[in-house]
Write a structure and sequence with these properties.
- The complex is a heterodimer of chains A (263) and B (317).
- Chain A is of the alpha/beta class.
- Chain A is built from seven helices and eleven strands.
- In chain A, helix 2 packs across helix 3 and helix 2 runs parallel beside helix 4.
- The longest helix of chain A has 18 residues.
- Chain A is globular, with a radius of gyration of 19 Å.
- By secondary structure, chain B is an all-alpha fold.
- Chain B has two domains: 89 residues, no CATH class; 203 residues, Orthogonal Bundle (MetI-like fold).
- Chain B contains eleven helices and two strands; from the N terminus they run αααββαααααααα.
- In chain B, a hairpin with a 2-residue loop joins strand 1 and strand 2.
- Chain B starts with 22 loop residues before the first helix and ends in a 7-residue tail after the last helix.
- The chains are: A alpha/beta (263), B mainly alpha (317).
């Protein structure tokens, strides 16, 4: 049984305040994510990658179709499915440690155990020294590392990551990508990672899923053996990159008219 | 970002002026560039507080001087140029002389000391504002939190908001008759609506990503409300209390003028006016301004600054 299964999911949003039109963002998408996979969702912006992640997290419900997590229909967010958001989502009035401890709120643990788990999670992302600081003193990369530490403390089986490092500079992003890869290798969890960068996907994924232009549909999937070298200069990776880039929809320009439903 | 000391005259609609180029800051830092040591990029400059305090006092004094000038010129023009001998327009000096008598020479006004009037007004204000805060916080929280209740709840609140302070008078008189309670009711009616709207707005402005993060981490509704929404909205909530406090203070004076409270600053103004003691009226107006300024610019500004600091939400530092 897959860990999480997306079954014929369609999601549409109203496009006007009068609610007389809707736009289909995800169009009849079916996907399965197995244990211990690192899946990257790539595709042009506006193709519904983030929407799919929100649906899997339980923040929103599908317009049609369903999402099954461990065989049960996803109805609401849960600490079993952790999310790292694209925007900064820390609580500014809490110390870094308390931000991480918040992720342990729903677990029955003593205060000391919570401190212990939170500190170990912070140490894993090299932020143990900043435990007492407020988020407003942290750089963007550090903030996202705290967000990662939250999930480490929470220890969900599914990690949903929505372009978590896209607002960071190239060097920081690469460093954090490697960190995530290490965490994944140690923890053996399932990660679904949204990105628009083919390079980032090739660096991280065991499977890459390419989405089409709006309305989002799966164009193609690539499995990358865990054993394969991720060195971007090897012929295999270069060939794979070309294949994916060629399969990418040409551009996200406005000349592609979205499907509209009149009501 | 200048350091704020004492009187803080910024409001929501007038944030700290980022547009103005502040050459003073650069000049001050430039003097200390030589003290830089090693590869460290931090320069020790020393406290700006005494200078900042001097600046604040200076700007405040200039502003105050302008008010007094306008007042003096107007009084002079009215009394000496227009030369209407019947009633004199009170000039600043005679007003402050009488204020001095009220405050320090034990001179009474309508049978009470000025302190009795002040305490009576502040007492009404306290009672009404406390009630309004309790109701506003509760109502605003419910309306702000519940997506289902907001569109319904905002209708009566908006209707009540459109009722000007003194238009509550007939209702106040029907409920409480003439006297102090009617004034308290009017203040309550005005400020509770202001606070309700502010609190509801503050809660609704909490970014969705923060709410989603909390839910993803397993926060149930009470936890979400208590540990995320309320802290996030605190600065907005304090601001709404500040605005509510201001409108309560203004309408208090007006209410005292019309419902016959027998004591209080507003009552004192109408009575001195009727007794043609215009200097006395002016002295009361000055007191009202001072108390209002102290409450808003000192008390609430400090509370807001403290809250921002505690919440890690300083604008700059």
């Amino acid at each position: 049984m897959p860990l999480i299964e997306v079954k014929r999911v369609t999601k549409a949003y109203y496009t006007s305040r009068r609610k007389d039109r809707a736009r289909i963002v995800l169009d009849d998408v079916s996907l399965q994510f197995r244990d211990n996979e690192f899946v990257c969702l790539i595709g042009p912006s506006g193709c519904g990658k983030t929407t799919l992640l929100n649906l899997m997290a339980g923040f929103e419900r599908p317009t049609a179709g369903e999402i099954l997590y461990k065989g049960e229909k996803v109805m609401a967010p849960s600490p079993e499915r952790g999310v790292v958001f694209q925007e900064y989502s820390l609580f500014p009035w809490m110390s870094v440690l308390d931000n991480v401890r918040f992720a342990l709120n729903s677990k029955e643990l003593s205060g000391e155990e919570k401190d212990d788990i939170a500190l170990r999670a912070l140490a894993m992302v090299n932020l143990a020294d900043s435990a007492d600081q407020r988020p407003n003193l942290l750089s963007g990369g550090m903030k996202q590392r705290v967000a990662v530490a939250r999930l480490l403390a929470m220890d969900p089986d599914l990690w949903l990551m929505d372009e978590p490092f896209s607002s960071l500079d190239e060097q920081t992003r690469k460093k954090l990508d490697s960190d995530i890869l290490n965490i994944w290798r140690v923890k053996r969890k399932t990660i679904v990672f949204v990105t628009h960068s083919v390079d980032e996907a090739l660096h991280l994924a065991t499977r890459i899923i390419l989405f089409s232009q709006s309305p989002g549909q799966v164009i193609k999937e690539w499995n990358i053996p865990t054993m394969m070298s991720r060195d971007p200069t090897t012929t295999e990776i270069i060939a794979l990159k070309k294949e994916i880039t060629d399969a990418m929809p040409a551009c996200a320009c406005a000349d592609v008219r979205p499907i509209e439903i009149r009501m | 970002m200048p350091i704020h000391t004492g009187l803080d005259f910024r409001t929501e609609s007038m944030p700290a002026g980022e547009i103005l180029f502040n050459g003073d800051d650069d000049a001050r830092i430039a003097k200390h560039l030589g003290s830089r040591r090693g590869p460290d990029s931090t320069i020790t400059i020393g406290s700006d507080r005494p200078a900042a305090l001097a600046r604040t006092t200076m700007t405040f004094a200039i502003g105050l001087f302008i008010v007094l000038m306008i007042w003096q010129v107007f009084a002079w023009a009215y009394n000496d140029v227009l030369d209407r001998a019947v009633l004199r327009f009170p000039a600043p000096l005679e007003t402050f002389a009488m204020l001095w008598d009220f405050l320090f020479e034990g001179r009474t006004l309508l049978g009470y000391t000025i302190y009795d009037h002040i305490m009576a007004s502040l007492g009404r204000w306290m009672v009404a504002f406390t009630l309004a805060t309790a109701v506003g916080l509760a109502l605003g929280s419910v309306i702000g939190y519940s997506t289902a209740l907001f569109p319904i709840g905002i209708v009566p609140v908006s209707v009540f908001q459109m009722i000007p302070g003194l238009a509550w008078l007939p209702i106040a008189l029907l409920l409480f008759g003439l006297g102090s309670n009617a004034a308290v009711f009017i203040i309550f009616a005005v400020s509770s609506v202001v606070i309700t709207i502010g609190v509801a707005g503050g809660i609704r402005r909490v970014p969705p990503v923060v709410i989603r993060a909390a839910k993803m981490m397993g926060a149930d509704d009470p936890t979400l409300f208590r540990k995320v929404l309320i802290p996030y909205a605190t600065v907005d909530i304090i601001n709404s209390l500040r605005v509510g406090m201001g409108s309560a203070w203004r309408v208090l004076i007006a209410a005292e003028m019309v419902v016959g409270t027998g004591i209080g600053l507003g009552y004192a103004i109408t009575m001195t006016k009727d007794l043609l003691n215009y200097v006395g009226s002016f002295a009361c107006i000055v007191i009202i301004c001072i108390i209002g300024l102290l409450l808003d610019k000192v008390l609430f500004a400090e509370v807001e600054k403290y809250a921002r600091h505690r919440l890690g939400m300083e604008e700059g530092y």
